[in-house]
Request: fold
Amino acid sequence: MSPVRVLIVDDQALFREALGVLLSAYADLEVAGEAGNGDEAVRRAAELAPDVVLMDLRMPVLDGVAATRRLRDEHPAVRVIALTTFDDDADVFAALRAGAVGYLLKDVSSERLVEAVRAAARGESVLQPSVAAKVVARIAQLPDLPVREPEVPLSERERAVLRLVARGRSNREIAGALFLAEGTVKNHVTTILGKLGVRDRTQAALRARELGLLRE
Reply:
């Protein structure tokens, strides 16, 4: 299996260098390149075709949110994880709306960061616990809507998986909670995304709320 190619985007050269050293220590990860601002990130992504981009949000020239939006439009296969110092609501939801599949703070442990990169490459969403709590809280604040079943009904097992996805749980955590193999959960999530007509787990959670599928 080919290593996961990572593009590191941050305006601090020392941080990029340190992160590159960390990721290079893992045989299944490869640092494809670096960029010092969002505009350079978009250009480098076109040249290097990374699997995952670790994206700082507050940078000169072009910020991380705008760069994430351009990557989503121009290179939809690239998975962006916001990696920043800030977790205020404005930054979190701007990044997720722009297309980021993950949101981590820079004080995250090296083990958690590496697993997040691997998870993003597998098509999973990765959220800092505090960020997951914000997403769940925001979903809970949405007004109740009449229940509208998806065009392709979800099974009871798929609904159970979806409810845990909406709470920000990883595939591993869902597998433990439902006593399933992690691969089985991954297959369920893929099926759920297809049935709901969405591209990632955050959109699935919002769509599920709209359809009234999060009720126990």
Remarks:
- The mean pLDDT is 86.
- The chain has ten helices and six strands.
- Residues 182-196 form the longest helix (15 residues).
